[in-house]
Design brief:
Elements: H1 6-19, H2 21-24, H3 27-33, E1 34-41, E2 47-49, H4 50-56, E3 67-77, E4 80-89, E5 92-103, E6 106-116
Parallel strand pairs: 1-6
Antiparallel strand pairs: 1-2, 3-4, 4-5, 5-6
């Protein structure tokens, strides 16, 4: 369940800025949102640090619009908020998880993970291969 605290609200607002193509396509604006120790596990399986994540923006094609849905948040500590949500970018759907840390009075993205999903099957089980 989402806890409606000012911290959760601040992290949600920061996440929505992060998803905004105008921000996400600008290394300068993105740098303002990323924590110095930022890490991400991309939906592609790639692991990113802050510098590599910003550097890829210099060479990638234009950002496609992203629709976020089912956003939920929980304040884990006075300066940490966990958000989960789904995104759809031109039919490519992903479950997303973000940790935001309050740093110098600004919510900064500390960790992010995306997992691509499609139609779930009955054989889908957590932590391993389905039994035979």
């Amino acid at each position: 369940m989402t806890e409606l605290t000012s911290a959760v609200t601040g992290a949600v607002e920061a996440e929505l800025r992060f998803l905004d193509p105008a921000v996400n396509s600008s290394p300068e604006l993105l740098a303002e949102l990323l924590h110095p120790d930022f890490r991400a596990f991309g939906s592609s399986g790639r692991i990113w640090d802050r510098d590599s994540f910003i550097d890829v923006l210099r060479t990638r094609s234009p950002v496609r619009p992203v629709t976020a849905s089912a956003m939920r948040g929980a304040q884990l500590a006075p300066d940490v908020v966990h958000l989960t949500f789904d995104t759809d970018s031109n039919g490519r759907r992903a479950h997303r998880s973000s940790l935001w840390r309050l740093t110098d009075d600004t919510w900064r993205l500390y960790f992010h993970q995306g997992t691509v999903f499609g139609d779930e099957t009955a054989d889908d089980v957590p932590w391993g291969t389905p039994p035979r």
